[in-house]
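Take a record.
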Amino acid sequence: MNKMLNEMGKHATQAATLLRKATTEKKNEALFSMEKALYEHEEIILEANQKDVLQAHKNKLTTPMIERLTLTKNRIHAMAQSIHQIAELPDPIGSIEEVSTDNGLKIGKQRVPLGVIGIIYESRPNVTSDAAALCFKSGNAVILRGGKKL
């Protein structure tokens, strides 16, 4: 397990180095491609999700957990729309806020990517796509770890 996490961390660090240099246009292009892929692969996603839901029932997950896990066409469309909205947000990276003190000292703050972000969360498909898109837009690599194994 530790070896696998170390490998994931190394790959994420390499990805973060590339993402840090990505232009707003390239990041948005990738996000719009993610949105498009959700629509294009909707049936495949629904089939795979159905397998997850069946396994969740076998593992006796609670009804609310199964409900949150279950995808529908409407939920996939909402995920795609959310990614689209994230792509249309202003790029936070590189913006500089500057203030001047009373004695003329100028203080600036520039937004930069963090690098690699790790997120552990309850297995909810929309959280997966939102977290990935937000991290990507802000120039960060992300390691996502859903909750219980189904």
Remarks:
- The chain has a mean pLDDT of 93.
- The first strand starts at residue 96 and ends at 100.
- The CA atoms of residues 52 and 150 lie 7 Å apart.
